[in-house]
């Protein structure tokens, strides 16, 4: 395999380096990508193995004693436009050299290993950088905890949807709710005793199945975990205990203890990659099946994109896009175009348009008609008609 993604490991020689690399291997497995997809380059091999024309991301592990290594390497990488993420252990100001003082860093801890691994994958466009979570709950039973999780997730750089906080006045409530669910990575479902007695909660549960969105299901004490059809849901149930709640109170005014909130954050981070990979695989499979039915020969590449070489000499790249295509999706497409080595190629961002608001679909159609000719979107309902073209 030709290495395309270079992960450069700089700084102190600490055991946390290997811990993080092991977690990255796990996340690549969750995404159904081989671990060889990322080439790990130690500082000692930078001059001989680093290629400036391929995507790179660097991690700098700080030193609690101020014994800073690889300063020349940092300077060269920054000049080359490579992003360097400082990782500190006690205090950023003492653990990290001045040359990285204007970079946002992250403190290493067991709770942050998943997050750091996902930051690496986001940097390489292997995992989308938007981190969207939808909280599904029954207002009369779990409002206080829903708000608590909203605040905790938001403070950890998630874009969180909570109906009472996330819909602007004057917007069509239910239409916007389905639209936002379509674009989320994970649903945190607060499964209280009366959750499925609510019509709209039941609808949200069904909608998650239709969209194949992963669910972190928090099941209240003395309440049974609901059976979920595994063919339509990816669910990760957690049976709650009274000691997960402050003073054991789990009514509508109850709140989780802080250590359990941190556990929920870790679970959401972990589920996110697995669910995005599953939805991406389903979209690829459906598109490929329709293509084969219409005698179109598309090939699935290791990068989990599809390519087609048409008889007329045209090259097409199909990029499965989870959620709602954005301008950043087009930027990602440009990167993949360069990695595939094509000069002349057209790109289609394929996506599932179920429950996306009509005004946004019209906006995407308008962009197709008025902007870049080589990058366009292709919605699921148009797969058949597009692939029927001669």
Automatic annotation (TrEMBL):
Which PROSITE patterns is this protein grouped with? TIR (PS50104)
The alphabetized list of GO BP terms reads:
signal transduction
Among SUPFAM superfamilies, the record links this protein to:
Toll/Interleukin receptor TIR domain (SSF52200)
Enumerate the InterPro entries for this protein.
TIR_dom, Toll_tir_struct_dom_sf
State the signal peptide span: none
The chain positions of domain TIR read 129-268
The name this protein goes by in its record = TIR domain-containing protein
């Amino acid at each position: 395999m030709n290495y395309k993604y270079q992960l450069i490991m700089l700084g102190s020689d600490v055991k946390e380096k290997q811990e993080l690399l092991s977690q990255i291997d796990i996340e690549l497995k969750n995404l159904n990508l081989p671990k060889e997809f990322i080439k790990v380059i130690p500082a000692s091999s930078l001059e001989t193995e680093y290629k400036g024309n391929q995507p790179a991301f660097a991690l700098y592990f700080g030193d609690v004693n101020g014994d800073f290594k690889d300063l020349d390497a940092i300077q060269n990488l920054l000049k080359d436009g490579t992003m360097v993420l400082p990782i500190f252990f006690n205090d950023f100001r003492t653990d990290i050299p001045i040359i990285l003082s204007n970079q946002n860093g992250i403190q290493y801890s067991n709770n942050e290993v998943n997050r750091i691994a996902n930051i690496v994958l986001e940097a390489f466009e292997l995992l989308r950088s938007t981190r969207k979570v939808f909280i599904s709950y029954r207002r009369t039973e779990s409002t206080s905890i829903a708000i608590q999780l909203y605040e905790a997730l938001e403070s950890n750089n998630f874009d969180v949807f909570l109906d009472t906080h996330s819909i602007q006045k004057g917007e069509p409530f239910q239409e916007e709710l389905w639209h936002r669910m379509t674009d989320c990575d994970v649903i945190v479902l607060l499964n209280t005793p009366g959750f499925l007695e609510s019509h709209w909660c039941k609808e949200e549960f069904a909608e998650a199945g239709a969209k194949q969105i992963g669910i972190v299901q928090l099941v209240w004490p003395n309440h049974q975990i609901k059976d979920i059809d595994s063919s339509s849901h990816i669910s990760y149930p957690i049976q709650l205990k009274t000691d997960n709640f402050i003073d054991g109170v789990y009514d509508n005014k109850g709140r989780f203890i802080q250590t359990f909130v941190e556990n929920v954050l870790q679970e959401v981070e972990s589920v996110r990659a697995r669910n995005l990979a599953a939805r991406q695989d389903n979209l690829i499979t459906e598109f490929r099946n329709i293509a084969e039915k219409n005698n179109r020969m598309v090939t699935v590449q290791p990068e989990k994109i599809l390519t087609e070489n048409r008889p007329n000499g045209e090259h097409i790249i199909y990029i499965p896009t989870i959620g709602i295509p954005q301008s950043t999706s087009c930027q990602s497409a440009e990167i993949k175009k360069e990695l595939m080595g094509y000069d002349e190629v057209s790109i289609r961002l394929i996506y599932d348009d179920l429950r996306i608001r009509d005004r946004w679909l019209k906006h995407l159609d308008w962009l197709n008609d008025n902007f870049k000719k080589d990058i366009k979107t292709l919605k699921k309902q148009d797969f058949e008609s597009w692939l029927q073209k001669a």
